[in-house]
Structures are given as C-alpha cells and as structure tokens.
C-alpha cells in the first residue's frame, strides 16, 4: 500500500471512531496505542492526527499529546448557529442570483442522490453527513464565495459530532429543508432561498436543543 493511501485509511479510521464516539469527546489519544490497534507504525498515526488537528477534531497540547476536541457546549452551539445565520442566507440568496446552468445542474444532481441514514451509526450517518456538507459547500460555491465556503468547512465537523451525540435522526427533515432551499435557488428567487436557509438553520438548532434537553 502506498504511504499516502495508508495515511488516508488511518485518518478515516480514527475520524470514524471520533465521529461515532468510539473515542469519546475530550479523550486522550495514544499514538503508540492507536498504532498497535490499527497494525501500523506510529508515523501514519501522527500524520493522521495532524490532519485531524487541522480540521479541529483533535487538539495537541504541549507535553501532553493529543486529545479529541470536547463536545460543543450549548452556548458554543448557539454561537455557531448565530454565525451560520449571518453568512448562509446570504450565500443561498447570492447563489439564486449567480448560479450558472452548470451549477444548477450540480445542485439538482446533489439532491437526486441524497438519502436519509437508515441506521443509528456513524457509517450509516456518514453518507448523510457527506451530503449535508456537499450541499452547504455547493451553495457557497455557487455564490462565488471562497470565504463562506472555508468558514463552513471549519465549523462543519463540530456540528456533526454534536449531532452524532445528540440527534442523528435528522435526515428526513433536513433533506426536505434542503429541497426547499434548492427549489428556491433553482427558481432564481433570492428572498425565498435566504428564507429557506434561515428556517432550516433555526429548525436544525431547535431540534438539537430539544434533544439535548431531553437527555439531561
């Protein structure tokens, strides 16, 4: 196996464990221990953890090594949604104004291939998670904003870890909301696109707050 492919596989394996909470939020990570478990040398584990650090899924502490990033607090989650509400309605509205025929075809194709997760595990949820990321990133791309796209990428994994912990069963509702957004973009209706994204984000946050409250 090529070294790059090995690092890719190790990275995906560790990320899956973090996302599925096989490695708990805030847990210490042993490079040697992970290498033994995965049957590899410590080198690809170090490289994989460096990638995960850049995605803010793990944190490197001086003289203490790595740990997984703690779960978002309710206040941090609220801040994240406030931030998204500032940028994503604009992105959707701008996409409705600027999207080319090729971009609209990509949006239709993304919705056509999206499915809700069928099981309560990360492997099942991963396909929906990938769709959700692609959908929101595509809106930013169609709006022509690299800054919005990068901002969404920086925050996306933390939101999905939180969802994985508290509320995975969001697929059907989220897909319906994505379709409403896409319909507005495809209809070249900026106001409707912005409203649909705003409603989607507010409903998503409300679902997570309710689930969090029920688990206390």
UniProtKB/TrEMBL annotation:
Pfam families cross-referenced by the UniProt entry: FCD, GntR
Keywords for this protein: DNA-binding, Transcription, Transcription regulation
Residue ranges of domain HTH gntR-type in the record: 4-71
Domain of life: Bacteria
SMART domains linked: FCD, HTH_GNTR
PROSITE patterns associated with the record: HTH_GNTR
PANTHER family documented for this protein: TRANSCRIPTIONAL REGULATOR, GNTR FAMILY, UXU OPERON TRANSCRIPTIONAL REGULATOR
Entry protein name: GntR family transcriptional regulator
